[in-house]
C-alpha cells in the first residue's frame, strides 16, 4: 500500500482497542523471567559452547602477532579465532568501524580474538592466556584539542548550503549585528554510553552453509543484510531471530562483534556458540553518543522576537563516521528570518560515535534550550512566553512548507498551568526549603517524525484467531501490544484473539525499531496487511468488502453476520503487504512537540542536585497505547536527567579509551534519583502522518528535558553551567 495522501476515515478510527491504555502483552514474560533473551536461548539448538571476546589493548596501530598456544591448550578450549588469520571483514549497515579481521586497530577494545570453550569460565580463563604483540601508533582522542582541525559537514538541505557546510537563511551576520539583544554562548556535552540492561548477545549455529543467529537487535532487516555482507554469504543462507530485546536505544541498530564472532567461533569449533559482550566491551567496543562543542547565537528585538539564530556543532568520530546532528532542531523549532546552522567533524581515534536515543536533538536541545533560557533572562521575558512568541507554523527554511501538525504552544501553556509555573520566582537563588535551594526550569521538546516502509503478514484461522508476523522488534517499547491492538481493531476481534510474532528475518521486513519511527510505521504496515485480509475474508464469504463491517468477532453485511473464523473454515486465509510513504515528507514537515517542566533542589552546602518534580506535555499525533507511550516518555525523561546531571564517559586522552567502562563508574539515574513523573498527551490526531494518524513518541521524552533540569538548577542557584553534565563540582 502506498500512503502519501491525507488519511480519511478508516477502521482504526473506531478506537475500540487502539488508543486505549493496555498492559504490555509481553510484560508478564519479561517481568517473570520467562521471556528468553538472546543469551538465554538454551533450547534453540543443543550442544552450545561459549565464546569470549578479546578486545585490543591499544587504541590505534597494528597487531603484530597473537600467541594462542597456551589458550588452545587450556581446559575446555575448542577453538581460538584471531583477527590476524581473518581477512578484514566488510562493514555492516550504518557503521564506521570495522568489527573484525586484519591487523589494523581503529579503536581501543576493537575485537581481536574470540576464544570458544565448553564453559564461559573456561573461555574467559583461556582468553587471559592469549598474548598479543602490538605496534601502537599515536592517536587523537581529545575533542577540544582537535576541534580546530575539524572539517565542515555538508548540510542536508541543498538550498543555501554552501561548500563550507553552512546552511543559511537570510543574512544571519547582518541581523545578529543589528539586534538590540544578543546571546553568544558555547556549551559542551559529554560522550555518553549505551547502558541497556541486556548486553549485546548472540547464539550462532551453522547447519551446512546456513547460519542462524539468535540475537538481540533492533533492526532485523539491516542486520540480515549486514551479516550476509560481513561474512560474504548470500542473504538466503542467514536467519536472524530476536523476539525479545532488553533495551536498545540505538546501540543495537547494528550487528556488532557478538554476532560476527559467534558466527566465526561456531564455524571454527563446529559447535553452536553463544557470545555476550561484557559491560566494558559495550563502552569501548560498540557505539556511543559522541561529545559535542556547540555555539549558539541568538539576536532578538527588545520585545523578544528572534531576528537571528545560529547553531554550530563540532563532534568527533572515526574516519568514516558521521557527526552528531545537534543543530537539526534549530532549523525548525523557532521563527526567525535570518538563520545559520553548521556542523564540523573532527577525526578522533575513539570508539565509534553513533545513534543513541534521539541522536542530534537530545544533545542539541540540551544546548539550544539553555540558550533560550539565557536569552529570555536577557530580555526579562518569561521563558515560556519567549518560546510562545517565537512559534512558527511553517518550516522556517522552506517557504510555504507546513508542519503536518504542530501544537508546541498548546504543550507550553498546558504544562505551565499544570506545573504551577506562575509560582516560580524568576530571580535565581531566592527559593529555599530547609537546606535546599529550590528552582524551576522548563524547555521545549522537539523530535522529528520519520516514516519508514514497513511490511507484515496476517493470517486468519478457523477459530477466528489472527496471527501477525513481521520482523519488527520490541525493544521494551510495547511493539507487541500496539501491533496486536492494530490487528484487533482492523479485524474486529478482541486482543486475546490476536497472536503477534516478531523479530524473525523469515517474516516480512518492517521499519524496525529506531528513530522513534517504529511504532507508527510498523502498525501502519500491519494496517495495510489487514486491509488485504479483510478483502480476502469478504471475498471468501461472498460479501462486498466495501460494505463489510468487522466487529465483535463477526463480519457483517446487510442483515448477514458471520463469525470471522468461518471465512477460514476451508483453510487459513493469509495476506501480506508493505506500506510505503514516498513523497509524504516533501509535502509536510512532520515533527513531534512537547514541553518539559522540572523542579530541583540543590543542597546549599554540598551542591547535591535532586530532581523533585517533572512534567512532560507531549503532542505526538494519536497515542496508540497511552500506557506504553507514557512509559516511553518517562524513560526518556529519566535518560535526559542522566545526561544533565551524571552521564559522562571519561576519556583517557593519553591512552585513548573510555575509562569508566562499567556501571560502577558510568553513572545513570536510578529510582532514588527520579521523583514521580507526570506525562500529559495532548488529545491529537495527525491527519497525514499515516493511516494510524500517530507519530513517534519513544524519543520525544528525552528531547529538551536535560535543558529543563539545567534551567531549574540555574533558577535554584544562579550558577549557569554550560558544560554538561552538571556535576556538583561545577556548582561549588
Ligand atoms: Mo534510535 S537512537 O534510532 O534506536
Automatic annotation (TrEMBL):
Q: What InterPro entries does UniProt report for this protein, alphabetically?
A: Ald_Oxase/Xan_DH_a/b, Ald_Oxase/Xan_DH_a/b_sf, Ald_Oxase/xanthine_DH-like, AldOxase/xan_DH_MoCoBD1, AldOxase/xan_DH_MoCoBD2, AldOxase/xan_DH_Mopterin-bd_sf, PaoC-like
Its domain of life reads Bacteria
Annotated signal sequence is none
A molecular function annotated in GO for this UniProt entry is: oxidoreductase activity
Domain Aldehyde oxidase/xanthine dehydrogenase a/b hammerhead stretches: 32-138
Q: Which residues cross the membrane?
A: none
State the NCBIfam families in the record: peri_hyde_PaoC
Q: What is this protein called?
A: Xanthine dehydrogenase family protein molybdopterin-binding subunit
Q: What is the lineage of its organism?
A: Bacteria, Pseudomonadati, Pseudomonadota, Alphaproteobacteria, Hyphomicrobiales
